[in-house]
Amino acid sequence: MEKINRELIHSIARHSNWSGQSIAAWLRKEKVYAGTQDWIKFLQLFLLGLGGSFIVAGVVFFFAYNWADMHKFVKLGMLESLLIIVTLVAVFGNFSKVVKNVLLTASVMLSGVMFAVFGQIYQTGANAYDFFLGWTLSVAIWVLISRFQPLWLLFMALINTTFILYTNQVATNMPFSYVVNILFGINALVVIIWEVLLWRNAISDRHKWFPRVVALAAISALTISMIVGMYDDFRGDYGLAFVLAAIAFSAGIWHGLRTRDLFYLSVIPFSVIIVAAAGIIRLAGPDPVGIFLLASVFVIGSIALLIHNIIQINRKWHGTVQ
Amino acid sequence: MAQFSNDNLQQVLQAIAQEEGVSFTFDAAAIETEERLSSSLYTNLPIKLLTIFGGFLATFFFMGFLMTTGLYNSNVAMLVFGVLFIVGSEVISRLRNDLLLDSVSVSLNIIGYLLFGIGVSELSNDVTLALTLATIATAFILVSDGRVLVFLSVLVLNGSLMSLPYIFELPGLLHLYVGLAIALLAYMSLHESRLISASPKLNKLYSPVRIGMVFSLVGVLILLSHQDFATEQIQHTWISTILFVISILFVLRHVMQDTGVIDSRTQAIVYVCCLVMLAPTISTPSIAGSLFIVLSGFYIGHRLSFIIGLMALGYFIILYYYNLEITLLAKSGILVLTGCLFLGGLYLLNRYIRTHAK
User: Fold this and answer.
1) Partner-chain contact A51 B258, CB within 8 Å
2) Do both A29 and A63 map to the same domain?
3) Do A193 and A139 lie in a common domain?
4) Residue B321 contacts A where some CB pair is shorter than 8 Å
5) Residue A319 confidence (pLDDT) above 80
6) Which residue ranges does UniProt annotate as crossing the membrane (chain B) (predicted)?
7) How far is A272 from A241, CA to CA, in rounded Å?
8) I need a surface site. Which of A117, A151, B126, B299 has the fewest CB within 10 A?
9) In which band, very low, low, confident or very high, does the pLDDT at A322 lie, cut at 50, 70 and 90?
10) Is the pLDDT of residue A166 over 50?
């Protein structure tokens, strides 16, 4: 018998005289409810996560305190020793993989603190882009070998922050559409790498939220770029965003169909719907009475069509007959 | 037994029938239709999200249309259209048991509440607004068939109830609301089986009302921890904290019963640890509150409420330390110390598991 879920239990309870006691037993038997092992795992992760992040936050606050009397060598030396100790424990300690990964994440955060303290001592400012660039580069190898999705996500946040700060502080006259197009490129590239690695069985597909978040970032950037392009009469990137979208979105849909992944099949069309609706409003010009209604009807119609298609595709994949 | 095209379902029903005996009766056709509609686990989340986001997007444009037509010039018109849209959303959701119409229904419902709210607030005072919205939402919860619609109505009802203490300038009454909301969520989380077997209506209400209560509780926690949002200051926030702590202990008692921790000394240690951990947050109910959402969500294996609770917990913990009025050095000391305590707890937990595994 396949595993049954909460929805089915609710459905059966709705249309029968199934007793509450028996339902309670089934909810536990079918592991809809958390069992002893789940609670143990939850508590372990909860305590480890809270403990680790509290200690790192404590270290950050310790160095954020303005130590006027402490010599800069002592400050940096203390941080570096801490960093070395944590990393050595992460590499050589006799712990589970999760603990080691949390320790490595702590090392990555400590590297950031080190750059911030450096900035504090030499008055370079804590939000200078080179500070983030240095941080990103110095932790890159750890992140790559860790195979720990939270750390990868942190790394992506660092890369994106570095680039955004760079455009704010150095490349100040880069057109906005270029900025979002490049952000799309960076994030899309990572998603592609992830999918290729998955395809070659180099990583497991058990947790997919890292590529999901990055893909969402990429698609959001491209959607913004297309809408801004339309309202800007394509003066920013001469319609490059639309070319990128044509390539990336077709590839995404193709990949979604091939790997039976509903994520791409729902997010990409949704982005297209948003852009098309914005396009309809754009066409209206200065007097938009009625065009809003058209856009609204368009959104409802296209979403309905999209959902209809997704259900059809899903039925085909999972073999349930209508 | 009736024949099913779905073997799995047939096996499940047979197994239940064996346990329940001859008195077990069920509507095979209805169960199978619903099973087919939900089709597979994979459809649920993307389609629900698309429905909701699509609904919001359409609402946004439709509001733009209504504004360009000059509807906002007449309060009575807004009120009338509001009622029409709310009723219309329910009619549409009942037309066919189909997800396709849901996006229309959801967007009409949101616009309906908005227009009605604007209309009433212009024509009358805040008390009338809160009470009429609460009445409509209650009626909707009792009558409606659509899950998302019930969820939205739960949010409207809770929002109206939350606003009453502020309108009457008795902010202390908010604790009463908190108490009621906690009691409801705790009861729903601990007695799911009893509720869903009580009646088909309660069964249908269970999921949307529970998740609606989770969102509402997060909302009230935000109100309690960002006092600058409202003009009235809420005093004695410790009352809410104590209510939340009691509910956490209550959930923990059930957890320990379920996981076979019967030794009263261990139970006492768990309670004391929990109390010690939460004692410093006595004046900020948001931490205990989000922990309650996390635990009750994890207890029944409800992923969405668990994740919402975790996100709220992370936010409120950061806010707590951000607002703490002590020097950075003292903060640093407290954080490192608390972190060590958590890791110590982990060590003790692992030791306990090892000794009991033998």
Assistant:
1) no
2) no
3) no
4) yes
5) no
6) 45-66, 72-92, 99-121, 127-143, 148-168, 174-193, 205-225, 237-256, 268-298, 304-322, 334-353
7) 12
8) B126
9) very low
10) yes
Residue A16 bridge partners (DSSP): B26
Is residue A155 assigned to a domain?
yes
- Interface confidence, given as ipTM, is 0.85
The CA-based angle A143-A147-A150, given to 5 degrees, is: 70
Looking at the fold, whether A227 and A157 belong to one and the same domain comes out as no
CB-CB under 8 Å, B99 with A65: no
* Subunit contact A320:B40, Cβ cutoff 8 A: yes
- Report yes or no: A321 at the B interface, CB cutoff 8 Å: yes
Start-to-end CA distance of chain B, whole Å, equals: 46
Q: List Cβ neighbours of B160 (8 Å cut-off, separation of 6 or more).
A: B130, B131, B133, B134, B137
- Alpha-carbon separation of residue A110 from A60, A72, A80, A137, A210 (angstroms): 8, 17, 9, 14, 22
Residue A150 within a domain: yes
Residue B41 pLDDT exceeds 60:
no
Using a CB–CB cutoff of 8 Å, tell me whether B84 touches chain A: no
A188, A154: one domain: no
Tell me the CB-side half-sphere exposure of residue A37, using CA atoms within 13 A.
2
Among A147, A174, A201, the domain-final residue is A174
- The tens digit of pLDDT for each residue in A38-84 reads 999 999 999 998 998 899 888 888 877 777 777 888 888 888 998 99
If asked whether residues A54 and A150 sit together in one domain, one would say yes
Q: Are B58 and A296 in contact (CB under 8 A)?
A: yes
pTM metric for this prediction: 0.81
pLDDT at B99: 62
HSE-CB for A1 with a 13 A CA cutoff: 14
Cα Rg of chain B, angstroms: 24
Q: Which of B136, B143, B228, B130 is nearest to B177 (CA)?
A: B130
CB-facing half-sphere around the CA of A33: CA atoms within 13 A? 22
Model pLDDT for residues B1-30, shown as the tens digit of each residue: 445 556 777 888 888 888 888 888 888 888
Q: Which of A61, A274, A310 sits opposite B328 (nearest CB)?
A: A61
pLDDT of residue A320: 52
Instruction: Supply the pLDDT for residue B261.
Output: 84
Average pLDDT, chain A: 87
A80: left (phi over 0), alpha (psi -120 to 50) or beta: alpha
In-domain check, residue A179: no
Domain extent, residue A20, equals: 1-33
Q: Please indicate whether residue A274 or residue A65 has the higher confidence score (pLDDT).
A: A274
Most A-contacting residue of B332, B347, B348, B350 (CB-CB within 10 A), to test interface: B332
Q: Is some CB atom of chain A closer than 8 A to the CB atom of B13?
A: yes
Which pLDDT band holds residue B57 (cuts at 50, 70, 90)? Answer: confident
Residues A209 and A322 in one domain: yes
How many CB contacts within 8 angstroms connect chain A with chain B? 266
Residue B124 in contact with residue B75, Cβ under 8 Å? no
Out of A14, A40, A43, name the one closest to residue B203 (CB): A14
pLDDT for B313 equals 95
